[in-house]
Design goal:
This protein has three domains: 9-85; 127-165, no CATH class; 168-317, no CATH class. It has ten helices and nine strands. The radius of gyration is 32 Å and the shape is extended. It has helices at 9-19, 21-53, 75-85, 91-96, 136-143, 178-187, 192-212, 219-222, 259-276, 290-302, and strands spanning 113-115, 119-120, 127-134, 158-165, 170-171, 174-176, 231-234, 284-287, 308-309. It has 319 residues and is of the alpha+beta class. The protein starts with 8 loop residues before the first helix and ends in a 10-residue tail after the last strand. A three-stranded mixed sheet has the order 7-8-9. The chain has a two-stranded antiparallel ribbon with strand order 1-6.
């Protein structure tokens, strides 16, 4: 069974069980006896059903089975289990939530994060990369051995194949409910001030992770890790908002611009919706691209940049 719980949940539960081992062992004994009685009753029930089909009923199965009720877990033990599973200061549970469907009255937590899949802002074509591979030792043996010697055999690995590759400029979005995050932390036992401090730290870590997240598939053959996003836009709203609809019409990269054109369209759309709606803030924008930085400078000089520029990832979550 896989359980999403605080790191010290096992230690806290073990500490309680050790301190109350006599009561726990007594309950375990009753539980095992009840399980055996239940199995016996189940076996008798099967024999009764089989005998009923033959219109004969053995005398021993006519006796009523008693003592087969499974004893309930002591309240103190149950409380200790729930306390150990409670999120407390587990930031990841406060962020992503948790649902324990099989544990009644369990401390479930509503998530504070929602994410959307990444998609290219332009039409993307799949490329088939054909490759061949051979065992270097096999190649060296053939190069250094006379043809008539049996040592130049075919032992070793060799193969050909292909892999599908796709590249592009991607748009992805995520939303963090700052209120729900603080509610989750306070429900775990934190005070309002402590929860606010923990939430601020969690927000910064989340935004940092979002910026640095990269697809890891085939990272050894494509060297996909290490790239930085072209543009990061962070803003507050009274409900989750994203600008994915602005790319319903794909960017034509054949005419030039590429990521810069996508960034320009995104920023113009953001300026439009912030002007039309009072429940979306201008937010902050961060870029690691020289061409997009020039675009930000141009828009700022025209007074048409709705978001304030940030120099670091930490500034994206500033109040």
């Amino acid at each position: 069974m896989l359980l999403f719980a605080p790191e010290d949940a096992g230690a806290k539960l073990a500490e309680f069980l050790h301190a109350h081992r006599d009561d726990v062992l007594s309950w375990v004994g009753e539980f095992e006896e009840a399980c055996k009685a239940a199995e016996t009753a189940k076996a008798k029930s099967k024999r009764r059903a089989a005998a009923a089909d033959e219109n004969t009923l053995p005398v021993e199965v006519e006796e009523s089975a008693t003592g087969t009720g499974i004893p309930t877990l002591p309240k103190a033990v149950r409380a200790a289990v729930l306390a150990a599973l409670a999120p407390r200061d587990a930031i990841d549970i406060a962020l992503y939530g948790r649902f324990l469907a099989e544990i009644a009255d369990s401390p479930n937590v509503d998530d504070a994060i929602m994410t959307g899949p990444a998609f290219t802002v332009h039409a993307a074509a799949q490329i088939d990369d054909f490759y061949s591979a051979a065992d270097d030792s096999k190649i060296r043996r053939k190069a250094n051995t006379l043809d008539y010697l049996d040592a130049a055999d075919d032992a070793g690995a060799g193969m050909t194949g292909y892999q599908s590759l796709i590249s592009g400029t991607f748009y992805r979005h995520a939303a963090l409910d700052r209120v729900q995050l603080r509610v989750n932390l306070m429900a775990g036992g934190m005070g309002a001030e402590e929860a606010d401090q923990a939430a601020v730290a969690a927000e910064r870590q989340f935004v940092g992770a979002f910026i640095d997240a990269m697809p890891a598939a085939k990272k050894n053959t494509t060297a996909s890790t290490g790239s930085l996003p072209k543009l990061v836009l962070a803003f507050d709203g009274k409900r989750p908002f994203n600008h994915s609809a602005v790319f319903e019409d794909p960017i034509d990269e054949q005419t030039g611009g590429g990521a810069s054109r996508a960034a320009e369209r995104l920023l113009k759309h953001h300026r439009l919706v912030t002007r039309m709606r009072s429940d979306i803030a201008g937010g902050r924008v961060l870029t690691y691209d020289l061409g997009i930085q020039n675009l930000l400078d141009e828009l700022s000089a025209k007074g048409s940049l709705a978001a304030a520029e940030a120099d670091t990832a930490e500034e994206l979550t500033a109040p």
